[in-house]
Amino acid sequence: MTTYADIPKPIRSGIVIVEPELGTPQRIIVLQFNPDTLERSVTPQAAGGEGDGGGGGSGGDRNEALRLKGPAQESWKFTAEIDATDQLDVAAPDGIHPQLAVLEMLVQPTTAQLRAASHLSKKGTIEISPIEMPLTLFTWGSKRVMPVRLTELSVNESAFDVNLNPIRASLSIGMKILTVSDLPAGHRGAELYLAHLAQKEQLARAARGGSFAGLGLGGRGI
Fold first, then answer.
1. How does DSSP classify residue 69?
2. Phi and psi torsions of 142, nearest 5°
3. Residue 216 pLDDT more than 70?
């Protein structure tokens, strides 16, 4: 008889909401299914200005051609699936409304925050600070834990129960990786980004190097 006890259980990707001052998790969101694909965009912050490739072009400073202003700007996009159609024997009077609401509240202030801002406005407060959201971390295995801000959340609901509660949906999620250029010095998110970058540096050092011969340059070098 074949057993599968030695097959490792797959790790799920997810989102962790953290209280930035204490670093304590407020909520952990585990994605039901890992996305099939990830679209990542990494854009360097060239010191020469936008559109000139960092110097050497029109209006660019040649002395800045190899300089960077800060960490690269990175964004991620993926599609997440939520499906309760195989769990209809479990009491779920609201369908997947709760799971959708949890994700939507990542980009929404709470009613308490909105009422507080309205109260300050009625009192005649001249300047009301934008509402600060909790620190959001995206996790994709142990080697990718990074602070993010959701920039896109598009929901496509494709199945419903008899009460019109959604029971299946796909979500297009876009997020921006927050770096030390985005967060105040000493912020917990900034420290987590530095830890993420340090791990990337360690992985880069582990990569096997090439040779001049592989480039068709023989042994002459550059």
1. E
2. -70, -20
3. yes
Other CB atoms within 10 Å distance of the CB of residue 89: 6
- What pTM did the predictor assign? 0.83
Query: CA–CA separation, 55 vs 210, rounded Å?
Result: 28
Select from 45, 24, 39 the least CA-distant residue to 188: 24
* Closest-CA residue to 148 (of 28, 16, 51, 50): 16
Can you give the pLDDT at residue 126? Answer: 65
pLDDT value, residue 60 = 62
Assign 159 a pLDDT band (cuts: 50, 70, 90): very high
Domains and CATH numbers, the chain: 13-42+69-109+131-205 (2.40.30)
Q: What share of the chain is helix, strand, coil (3-state, %, to 5)?
A: 25, 30, 45
